[in-house]
Write a structure and sequence with these properties.
Blueprint lengths: L5 H19 L15 H24 L9 H8 L1 H37 L4 H25 L7 H5 L2
Length: 161
């Protein structure tokens, strides 16, 4: 039997977890007043997840086994996963500072720093990253605040106003 690549293993784990989640939707209580059951949307999302994961599994099986990587040990692992580690570290910092900075400032900084960590580091790229961060977070904030009537954290800076 040929060795599996890491993408195949990830797809199998996602399918197994999705199966457990789909099974859990059968234990969502029925509400008498709802015309659409509370279990419908989780099942729709999970079916979409299954479809995408099967496509991921098919592509990973088609690719074949992984090749031997360069460098081993902790430094090799950090080198391979540095982009993901940057994203986790920045998201942790965003969550840690959310009560102080709020969603607008903290979200904009998070998106800008993530784009900067993963993308180019030129003056033009920084300007594009800043524009994308500001526009996307302002758009998302306005949808949640005015369209969905959800109160997002405003932080200590904006609470003074």
């Amino acid at each position: 039997m040929a060795r599996l690549n890491t993408d195949t293993v990830c797809a199998i784990v996602i399918l197994a977890a999705g199966g457990v989640f789909f099974w859990a939707t059968f234990h969502i209580p029925k509400m008498g007043y709802a015309s659409l059951g509370a279990e419908v949307w989780p099942r729709v999302v999970l079916v979409l997840l299954f479809a995408l994961t099967f496509a991921y599994l098919f592509q990973s099986l088609k690719r074949g086994p992984d090749e031997k990587g360069e460098g081993g040990g902790v430094m090799g692992w950090i080198g391979r996963y540095q982009n993901a580690l940057w994203c986790y570290a920045l998201f942790g910092g965003f969550l840690y500072t959310l009560n102080y900075l709020g969603m607008l400032i903290g979200g904009t900084l998070f998106v800008f720093l993530t784009l900067t960590a993963l993308g180019e580091r030129t003056l033009r790229a920084h300007a594009v990253h800043a524009a994308v961060a500001f526009i996307s977070i302002a758009f998302m904030w306005s949808i949640f605040t005015y369209g969905l009537k959800v109160i997002l954290p405003q932080g200590e800076i904006f609470s003074a106003w």
